[in-house]
Design brief:
heterodimer; A: mainly beta; 7-stranded mixed β-sheet; 4-stranded antiparallel β-sheet; 11 strands; 53% strand; B: mainly beta; 6-stranded mixed β-sheet; 0% helix
Chain lengths: 113, 109
Amino acid sequence: DSGVTQTPKHLITATGQRVTLRCSPRSGDLSVYWYQQSLDQGLQFLIQYYNGEERAKGNILERFSAQQFPDLHSELNLSSLELGDSALYFCASSIGTAGNTIYFGEGSWLTVV
Amino acid sequence: KNEVEQSPQNLTAQEGEFITINCSYSVGISALHWLQQHPGGGIVSLFMLSSGKKKHGRLIATINIQEKHSSLHITASHPRDSAVYICAVRNNAGNMLTFGGGTRLMVKP
């Protein structure tokens, strides 16, 4: 158990809909990262937050947004969903912003139908 | 060309064999991670390296910064080692990971 909790574990939704994925980092970790793993593109970095502030942005679509709350949990919002958004979405956390081991959650499986 | 290349993509071994998975990268990095992903999907961080060599149990990871190359070795492989092994490099700012395509390992009893 990495200590990173993600909900929901599985989600099926229709095209055009909006979903929210939730992540609770390990106790004491200030950084939260979101990654997308799809069959055709592998693992990709989406976005990082550190202590409530956005720190780095990767291949995140404009239809997607994220935030980190004062209690350090994070949410990834996916809107106007398309079939191609079906993927495994991972949250990970670390103590700092760099040079630390990253701990991954179990992932949220999103299927868009 | 991808920034992080792994080889082989697929590997089948017999139990007890010594296994090597390679990772080459083309960008400047602050660290390199080896990750393990089991069929259920969860990812476990095995090693984080910025130089030299690390060992944990039957797993050994090495990195050569000058050659931009890392290897993950598994000694005395076991069927429970069957998983996808992913190399990921952390950028110089330390805040982004770029992933290799993964090596799917199957160890047969």
